[in-house]
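Lab meeting notes turned into a lecture example. A postdoc, R.K., suggested we walk through two folding results consecutively so the class can see how the record format repeats. The first protein's sequence and structure tokens come next.
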Amino acid sequence: MQDFGEILGNHVLIAAIAACLIAQCLKAIIGLIRDGTVNYRTLFSTGGMPSAHSALVAALATGVGQNQGWASTDFAIACLFAVIVMYDAAGVRQAVGKQARILNQIIDEMLQEDQEVSEERLKELLGHTPVQVLAGLTLGICIAVVVESFF
């Protein structure tokens, strides 16, 4: 039980998890404002505004910097890890989403021509726009600063 208490006292971990959860909840709130309805799938899905992955790694890197020092090797590792995750979110996963959209269009056209094709659609919203990644980055840094102020 003492180990569990130590985990709850790890403000870097708390900040990273909180940033991710808050980003996911913000997606649902933004959907409510935009569409007038709550889509609970957004709480557990990838893509959308803000990037939860970016928020998580930004809070992690910020927390490590606050805890270990901005010149520490640990911060350098966390920072580079964050850059890779955010690049992947905005680059590779965004490209995969575009490819899924095109494949879905091809399937739709084939179905209109009465050809037999599996009707399972590919998930198109996988990645993030640079603005969504930047919003996640900003959210993560802010959450880490707020969590640090409580410890």
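The second example is placed directly after the first for contrast:
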Amino acid sequence: MRIFSNVILAISLMAGTAFAETPAKSVEDGLPFEQFQMAALNMEKIKTFFSGRKAPKTAPLERTRSWVDQQPVVSGDAQWACLAQALYFEARGESVKGQFAVAEVILNRVDTPRFPNSVCKVVNQGTGRKYACQFTFTCDGHPEVIREQAAYHRVGKIAKLMLEGGPRDLTDGATYYHTKAVNPRWARKFTRTTTIGVHHFYRNPTRLSQN
């Protein structure tokens, strides 16, 4: 009987019926109507109301190839496409952790006043003359053809995760990087923050605040 009374009370709350200052006789008279309302309700919703069931937690992000490969294939808007292509052409041979790190650099640039304020503008900055660009693949004279679909799907997932607010804690605010195979003059003036795979990462000596 107590369970039935609790159900009636729950129904009254969900239906907007106020019992707070109502005489007992009126409540008893209203029971047939409330029973009719209970029959019309979705029983699954009633079970949820009493069970206190919570929404399942989202699995934590892992920067491993196996975890990323288990995630569903994604697509997105132009900004996603620009980031995915940059990761593919700049870092598809890197570890997944290294690909996340390159994504950090691009998004850190978007948030830094000295760089353009969108992913596509950052990726294509300086494109026009051969090798006069920020990301070599956009001005090296070679056609940008995606031939490795598995690698592209992987970096596409990473791009989506990072654009949706994935953590940027690998490069300590880096806005520059280069491979170990080269030793650019500008690197001497910047602070190296870390090395991941074949890339050294840098930021300006005075780190700017980020959004």
